[in-house]
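To: structure subgroup
Subject: Chain for Friday's discussion

All,

I'm putting the inputs and outputs inline so they're searchable in the archive.
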Amino acid sequence: MITSRQTRIRYLIVLMLFLASSFSYGDRVVLSIVGVALSKDLHLNALKLGYLLSAFSWAYVVMQLPAGSLLDRYGSKRVYGYSIVGWSICALAAGFVGYLPVAIAFGALFFLRLFSGAVQSPIFPGNGRIVAAWFPAAERGRASAIFNSSQYFALVFFGPLMGWLVTKRNWEACFWLGGVMSLLLSALWFRAVYSVKEHPRISQAEIEHIEVGGGLASMDSGTAKRASTLTWSGVKLLLSHRMLVGIYIGQYCITALTWFFLTWFPIYLSQARHMSMQKVGFLAALPAMCGVVGGILGGVVSDILLRKTKSATIARKTPIVAGMLCSLTMIGCNYTDSSTVVVALMALAFFGKGFGALGWTVISDVSPKNMIGLNGGLFNLIGNTAGITTPIIIGYIREKTGSFEMALVYVGFMALTAIISYLLIVGEIRRVEFTPEQLQGRAG
């Protein structure tokens, strides 16, 4: 029932996106926190650990296009909610892998991480889709920045908690705790999240505010099953657009930074800087907190620039370029022996990564109105290919060189490439509108 009083339900919705995304990233980061202890128990070298760290992304990437299509067809609430339940079950099961014979434990854990990646594939396309529906264009930067900052908050919250737990108990307990917490979250999700016009506590004034500002408030309204948007001709149509291709490349590079921080960064502090895992959990949280601040601040700055300049190009590109320049400073860690300086440089790099992580805001701005789920899925597919390549490449570098120096150079190069892509390929940022002839070709 729509109420007549003024409401701000969209802020509750973005809070739910932040919580769900934080738990999703928490599930991804647990393996890196317990990686040292787990490697000893399962007898894994650096390269084999790299493959295990990448397992999540193999299925996550493959499932992006189907996930986007499922979101467009069945709506965000249902698909997203079932995703939370699915990864919770995977986490609980992963805690029992330690009781299996070593010969099959690696394969079992690899499979569970694959399956967890598959069921989590709708999360970020769903985030972009929900923000496009619930927020006017002038508020999308902040909204997207809030849920995107979850990747850093996951380290802030789960890093110390899991670092303490793996030290005091064992690595299996970390998976069990994450699974139970995520199951509780799924119950809250189904109770709190609705489409815009079906929310029982929203006011007509808020609906009008969303729609007048460019929000797609009618998305997911009604219970009828919609047609699937997943066709290869549709994918080809999206890939034929130069601006979108530039955004996809930029997202791959930015996501490479994300996966360094989510996978090898705690291990880097432990192995290269000789810190205990309990200390790693707390020290990793400090740069991650800077990422949270940078992420939210980047969205705020972007929205301010949009209001002042009326240009999405200036408003979105400026924080992205500035943030990636800050991230380049992590290479400076190769030239110091001071743990304090390392943490400070990583804090600046984390801040820059957060400040420039506006890819989902850009996707909400530019996606064709009837292909938001599919375009979000394709965007996330290409971006999270870095989740496969980055852990393996860094594991290979670590195994061959015995150090992390070239690994940091590689991650810094990804930040530089993101800058080049946004400045030289993307061009003007605007919503894509395909002609009827192009769409007819997609349908055919």
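Points worth raising on Friday:
The longest helix spans residues 277-309.
The chain has one domain: 9-443.

D.
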